[in-house]
Amino acid sequence: MSVIIQKASIVDLQTLYKIEQGCFTTEAFSKKQIASLLRAPNSVSLLANASGEVAGFVIGLVYECDGIKIGHVVTVDVVPKYRRKGIGVKLLEKAEKEFKCKGVEICYLEVRADNVAAQELYRKSGYVEVEWLEDYYCRGGHGIRLKKTLLSHGPEI
Question: What is the pLDDT of residue 141?
Answer without folding.
Answer: 84
